[in-house]
Amino acid sequence: MVFPMIDQTVARWFVKGGTFFLSDHPFLKAVRDLSRQSLYCIIIAMVVLICLHFVLPRRRWFCRPHKPLFVLLSFMVGPVAIVEALKALIGRARPRDLLEFGGHADFTPVWQFAAACTRNCSFPSGEAAGAAAALSLVVLVASPYRAVVAAITAPCLVFIAFNRVLFGAHFLSDVMLGWLLTLLAMALIWRCVEGRSAAIDDFFARDRPSHPSAGAGQP
């Protein structure tokens, strides 16, 4: 916010001849496709795991049910709720849509209400938020190995987020704030989930009747 020209400066690093020359790079496109597909796979996997805990409560799964719930909430609140709300509210044009890069829109600093687009806007980056939310998966790893797994995966996830800057799809601030807002949301969610973890796990561990009328008419 103090130095808004940083966004334009970083964007220009990846422009040649008026276009973002890395936007068609096969490897970078493959990274983006993999990250987008992984997001949906993670969400589906967490929903399935939660449902299995609910349907088969007494089975021993590899994690307690409050953990996949935390992962699912991290993706729902960060990349979905926060990102989509701010995209519609701010309406910031993407770098590749700016006049200086052959587009039709003017540059607007981060957090400034722009109304430069009505859908699929630049701020914040949904894929950066998704990469940040993927860090929530470390709660599924055994405690002694979490720091190591986080240290290995975090640089990869940062690259996935910054990849959108290389494409001209997002400014640096879009990526950084998409990441940071999601991490903030995850910290708040984990505080709530961890504080109620026993109650959440007990809820999924209860024995349930096979149908609503089970036990009816019994003395």
Automatic annotation (TrEMBL):
Signal peptide: none
Keywords in alphabetical order: Membrane, Transmembrane, Transmembrane helix
InterPro entries xref list: PAP2/HPO, PAP2/HPO_sf
Transmembrane portions of the chain: 37-56, 68-90, 145-162, 169-190
Phosphatidic acid phosphatase type 2/haloperoxidase domain residues: 67-190
Gene3D superfamilies per record: Phosphatidic acid phosphatase type 2/haloperoxidase
SMART domains listed in its UniProt record: acidPPc
Protein name: NADH:ubiquinone oxidoreductase
